[in-house]
Design brief:
By secondary structure, this protein is an alpha+beta fold. It folds into 2 domains: 75 residues, OB fold (Dihydrolipoamide Acetyltransferase, E2P); 124 residues, de novo design (two linked rop proteins) (Up-down Bundle). Helix content is 35%, strand content 22%. The protein has 7 helices and 8 strands. The strands form 2 sheets. Strands 3-2-1-4-5 form a 5-stranded antiparallel beta sheet. Strand 4 and strand 5 form a beta hairpin. Helix 3 packs antiparallel against helix 4. The longest helix is centred in the last third of the chain and has 20 residues. The radius of gyration is 19 Å and the shape is elongated.
Amino acid sequence: MEWSDDAIVLSSRTHGESSMVLELLTRDHGRHLGLVHGGASRKARPTLQPGNGVHVKWRARLEEHLGSFTCELARARAGELMDGRDALAGLNAFTAVATAAIPERQAYAPVFLSGEILLEAMMEHDPSYWLALYVRWEAGLLDALGFGLDLSECAATGIKDDLAYVSPRTGRAVSRDAAGIYANRLFRLPGFLLGDGSEPDADDVAAGLALTGYFLLERVLQPHNKELPPARLRLDSMLG
């Protein structure tokens, strides 16, 4: 068995004296692990840092085996992402959620491609910009996993205007008028998730994080006895 793909490094850990077990988010083969022989060497280790883009070749005798990777650095991001406290927090949240939520060996190319855009934004912008992209990435992840939010129309009335809330029970949008006295039981729907062109402020981003975090926990993680990773929870502290 053999294939080649583009990937983002999620994590690496030593194995034996000189090898590393590498965890990747690949474009066409999903979240995938493999052994890198000699990966613990001084020469190879910088390539295998979280956030880096790599071109990878995987080989194994049988498909179900761990197999081995050979990696070529395609985009060096780790050094710059780890150099800033905010970017490092974003990187840690991204890798932790990808690891916890994405099933092994199931391809979600849009999640990979939007992840690359997100990591580039973390390198180039401050959190006031990329945190909204992070929320969009989580919303896209929910959609890819089959638990997407339905923000197309009001669940109660069918109207498409003035959508302001999301039901925690159904994941569907609710208009301001339809919410009525029950608004405090619903999640606020920030306009940037509707693509309304608005510039999200800290309150909008906080609402977005609460919304996608809730559905990741309830629909993706808790059914597998998992919690939201601590690295993801720490993103809220960046909004103070």
